[in-house]
Structures are given as structure tokens and as C-alpha cells.
Specification:
The complex is a heterodimer of chains A (about 220) and B (about 300). With about 220 residues, chain A is α/β, with parallel strands linked by helices. Chain A has seven helices and nine strands; from the N terminus they run αβββαβαβαββαβααβ. Chain A is about 30% helix and about 25% strand. Chain B is mostly helical and about 300 residues long. The N terminus of chain B is likely disordered. The chains are: A alpha/beta (about 220), B mainly alpha (about 300).
Chain lengths: ~220, ~300
């Protein structure tokens, strides 16, 4: 079996599956209202926490969900307002195609609009890089990318509502900013696609998923397919 | 094919005199065929422009009906909330382009003046290919260079993230130098040597000759070069996308994130649908009109130059 992967963001994948360009869409968000009607089958494959990251030199250790919302809505613009040093907050956001942005928006923003003066970057790597090099910057990325073997610079994930982001806190539901990752197929998956999906959900893949920084879904009893 | 061959053979038997007066039938057909072939090539450009314009216009039509011009020409770009105002993006494009020209024009014209008026053949042999090479570097490489090398420097200087107009200016200024330099060199070379010699004969120095005689004589050509450089700057997408920070607002400073028409189209195209996509095509039409007017200006100038 050969698998061709293209990474264009969750929305592009769902679009590709619904018009039969692709067999499986990989998505970091569930279906929105419009997409509910496309006849897609939802298959959760892993849990993922979204880490709020700051520069390692930033003394702030914790932010509440409310503080995060105020920061991302542009109401709080200086770190001193949330217990840090006197330094302007440099907001880093993701582009609208990003499932991470979608999840962050629905969990944190509670209907408040994002501050549109924020820098909009189109990839996790870019967000991580910019935050790691800018003292006043704040961003959010998938928990799995906070520690990177390949990057030379560091970012620090802060705790949210005094809960540190970790595999345990995400799986237990204690960490507030978490989401599920999905496969979508149009109708019932084809035999080949089904084989691939079963392989991804199999026990031997759990370690791989964990290595990539996510939490395998087959761990929790009851859920799964 | 066979009929042509036969007539060809017939022609060969004709008297010698006629060969001088007329070409053979097969040669005639070949010439005609090539004439139409090249006409088709040239015409393809026209057809392509018309088709692209018609297609973009068609896709953008709901801008007039469903979005409304008042919404489209407002300042708020928030597609998820039904706000499709492009003015901040247009302002961003303007800001980025003007700054790039302010930095790039002196650089480009200066290079051209040095190469045509001052440099020795040896120096010219070194610089000319370098300028040509600059034109051949793919824009994504400029963007990468801007993001990895220039942005951190700007961040250091301004205390921000380094995304914004200032970084874009620096990147674009380098990118438009080849366009401006090459066209300015053409303009300067078209100034007759006699004008320079007359200037020297009047006792003018080299600098006085350049500044008071050569540059004014070449002014239309130089404006031509600047306008085309401007076209390059306003249309540049990838390099800009990577360094401006893509915030669709009127920026607070030249070092805070901003967005342009082209970068916003590139950023949104992959996932947009419905009215959002329509608005992107509307922005395409705006860009089309801008570049058409730039080409119009260039045409007008070259007419004035000749007339």
C-alpha cells in the first residue's frame, strides 16, 4: 500500500475528501456546521494538547484562560498586566486554515474576536521559531512540538489555570486546551483506506503516536472507533 | 504535402528568370505558414490576458452583488465575520511598495549610473553578471533570506518580532534592483555620446555631466524603469508573505505586522470558499487594474519619449 500525504491544513484536507480528491482527511478539528452535511465518517485517532508557549527568558509561569483570552483579544498588551516584566506582548497567531487556531479559538476565545494586529504565521515551526527568538512573544502550538529534536532554540510551555500541559493532564482532561485529532473519510472507507486506518489505530502505532507528542486514542477504554 | 511536392517539382522546370522574380510555391507557403504561426504566438498573449481578466472578473462578480462595494472598500478584513474590506490590505500594499521604491530606486539607478558612466570594463564585467544573477534568484529564496537573516536583525533593532513593512522594504529593495538597473542602463546607453562630449567640452566635470545632462536626458527611461520596478514590488507575493506578519490592519509602526493584497490572497486561497473566495478574486481584479495602469503609464511615457 502506498500513502501520499500532503499537508495543507485541516480545512483543505476535509475539502479534498469531500470532493473525492483524497481518501482520508487528517484533521486537528471536528467538522463545522457546513461540513456536517458532507456525509463524512469521523474517526478519532489521538488526543492532543495545545501548549501556550513563551520565550524561555520570560518569567511568567502561568496564565488563566481568562488572561489568555484578554491577551489574544488585544485587551492586555503588556506582560506586567499578567505578572510579568514591563514588556509589550508580541502576539503570534495562526492562519485561519489552521486546526490549531480553530481549537484555540473555540476553547479559549469564547466568542471574542482575535486581535487582528497579531502576526499571522502559516506553520507550527514558524510560530515556534519566532517565539523562541523574541523575548516578548506568545504563541500556541501543538504540545508535541514544544520539545523539538531538530530546533536549536527553545520555547517554554506555560501552565494554564495552574495545570501543566502533559500527557497525563491532557488524557485526564485536567489541562484546559486539548482537542482530538481525526481521520475523515467520505462515507465508509474503502478497503485500502480501512486497512491504513486500522494500522494507525493499532497498538504497535501507539508508541509512534506518543513519540510524535500525541496521546493515542486506543488507550482510553470505551472510546476508539 | 504531396501536392506541394508536385508543384515544387513543376516550379523547378520553370525558366531561371522566374526564380529570381518569385520564390517557389513551397517556399511561399512555408513563409506564409510561419507568418501565421508567429501571429498565433503573439495573439495568444492577448487571448490569455483577456481570458484571465474575464475569468477573474466573473469569479469576482458577487463582490458587487452579494458583498457590496461599501463592504469591499472598508477597512476591516475579517472573512469569518462577513467583513471583506480590502482597504487595509491595499494600504499595506501601498506602504510596502512605496518604501521598497524609496530604498530600491536610488540603489538601482545608482548602480546603473556607475556601470554605464563610471566603471571600468573590468569592474563592469564583475558587477553586471551579479546584477543579472540577482534577477534570477527565485522569490521564495528572497523570502527565506528575509525571514531567517533580515527579520532577526530588524527584530533586534526595533524590539519587536521583526515582521512588518520595514523588513519587506529591505527584501523588496534588493529584489527590484535588477529590474530598475537593467532598464536604466538601457535608457542611459540610448543617450548619444555627443551630449556627454558637449558637456565635457563646456568644462563640466563628470559628476556635473551625469547629474545635469545625462540623467535629465534619460528621465523618461528612468521613470519607465521605476514604474516597472513598482510593478514588481506590488505584485511580489511569496517573499512578502514570509516577512510582513500578515495582520490585515493599518500598522501602528513600520515594524509591526501588516498584510498586502497579494500575500493575503496567497494565505487564504488554500482554504477559502464562498464569498471569501469571491473577495480574493475581487482583490485580484484590483491588482489587475493597478498593474494595467502601470503598463499604461509606461506606454504613455515611451510615446512621450519618442514624440
Amino acid at each position: 500500500m502506498s500513502v501520499l500525504v500532503s499537508g495543507l491544513g485541516s480545512s483543505a484536507g476535509i475539502e479534498a475528501v469531500s470532493n473525492d480528491t483524497a481518501d482520508i482527511a487528517t484533521s486537528s478539528r471536528g467538522l463545522n456546521a457546513q461540513e456536517q452535511d458532507l456525509g463524512l465518517t469521523t474517526i478519532p485517532i489521538a488526543h492532543d494538547g495545545i501548549a501556550v508557549i513563551v520565550n524561555p527568558d520570560n518569567p511568567v509561569q502561568n496564565l488563566s484562560v481568562d488572561q489568555l483570552r484578554a491577551i489574544y483579544a488585544g485587551e492586555v498588551t503588556n506582560w506586567s498586566e499578567v505578572g510579568g516584566e514591563d514588556l509589550p506582548i508580541q502576539l503570534v497567531n495562526r492562519d485561519e486554515a489552521s486546526g490549531t487556531r480553530e481549537a484555540f479559538k473555540s476553547i479559549i476565545m469564547d466568542g471574542a474576536p482575535f486581535d487582528r494586529r497579531a502576526a499571522v504565521l502559516s506553520g507550527t515551526g514558524q510560530v515556534r521559531d519566532v517565539v523562541s527568538r523574541t523575548r516578548g512573544a506568545i504563541g500556541y502550538i501543538s504540545m508535541g512540538f514544544v520539545e523539538s529534536k531538530y530546533a536549536q532554540t527553545q520555547v517554554r510551555a506555560i501552565s494554564v489555570n495552574h495545570v501543566e500541559p502533559s500527557e497525563k493532564t491532557v488524557a485526564s482532561g485536567g489541562y484546559p486546551i486539548s482537542r482530538d485529532l481525526y481521520f475523515f473519510t467520505k462515507g465508509e472507507p474503502s478497503d485500502e483506506a480501512q486497512g491504513y486506518i486500522e494500522y494507525v489505530l493499532s497498538d504497535e502505532m501507539d508508541d509512534q503516536i506518543r513519540e510524535a507528542g500525541f496521546i493515542p486514542v486506543s488507550n482510553d477504554a470505551g472510546e476508539g472507533m | 504535402m504531396t501536392s506541394v511536392d508536385r508543384s515544387d517539382a513543376g516550379e523547378n522546370q520553370a525558366p531561371r528568370k522566374r526564380e529570381l522574380a518569385l520564390v517557389s510555391r513551397s517556399t511561399y507557403l512555408k513563409e506564409k505558414g510561419l507568418q501565421y504561426l508567429f501571429f498565433a504566438c503573439a495573439f495568444l498573449a492577448v487571448v490569455t490576458v483577456l481570458l484571465i481578466f474575464a475569468f477573474t472578473m466573473m469569479q469576482a462578480a458577487p463582490v458587487f452583488t452579494d458583498i457590496g462595494l461599501a463592504n469591499f472598500f472598508s477597512f476591516t478584513w475579517a472573512p469569518t465575520e462577513g467583513q471583506y474590506g480590502i482597504m487595509s490590505l491595499l494600504a499595506g500594499s501601498g506602504l510596502v511598495t512605496v518604501g521598497a521604491l524609496v530604498l530600491g530606486v536610488p540603489l538601482g539607478v545608482g548602480t546603473a549610473v556607475y556601470l554605464t558612466e563610471i566603471a571600468t570594463d573590468r569592474v563592469r564585467a564583475l558587477i553586471s553578471p551579479a546584477v543579472d544573477l540577482l534577477a534570477g534568484i527565485p522569490s521564495i529564496i528572497y523570502g527565506f533570506f528575509g525571514m531567517v537573516i533580515i527579520r532577526p536583525v530588524v527584530a533586534e533593532l526595533t524590539g519587536g518580532m521583526g515582521f512588518g513593512a520595514l523588513t519587506a522594504w529591505l527584501v523588496l529593495a534588493i529584489m527590484i534592483v535588477p529590474t530598475i538597473t537593467t532598464l536604466t542602463i538601457d535608457a542611459l546607453n540610448s543617450i548619444p555620446m555627443g551630449i556627454r562630449e558637449a558637456s565635457y567640452a563646456m568644462g563640466a566635470t563628470k559628476w556635473q555631466t551625469i547629474y545635469k545632462v545625462v540623467l535629465p536626458a534619460a528621465r523618461f527611461g528612468i521613470v519607465d524603469a521605476v514604474v516597472l520596478g513598482m510593478g514588481r514590488a506590488i505584485g511580489e507575493t511569496m517573499a512578502v508573505l514570509m516577512v510582513v506578519g500578515n495582520a490585515p490592519v493599518i500598522p501602528e509602526s513600520i515594524s509591526s505586522p501588516v498584510s498586502t493584497l497579494t500575500s493575503q490572497i496567497a494565505l487564504d486561497m488554500s482554504y477559502s470558499s464562498g464569498l471569501h473566495r469571491t473577495a480574493l478574486f475581487g482583490m485580484g481584479v484590483v491588482l489587475f487594474i493597478i498593474s494595467a495602469s502601470l503598463v499604461g503609464i509606461v506606454r504613455l511615457l515611451s510615446k512621450m519619449r519618442k514624440g
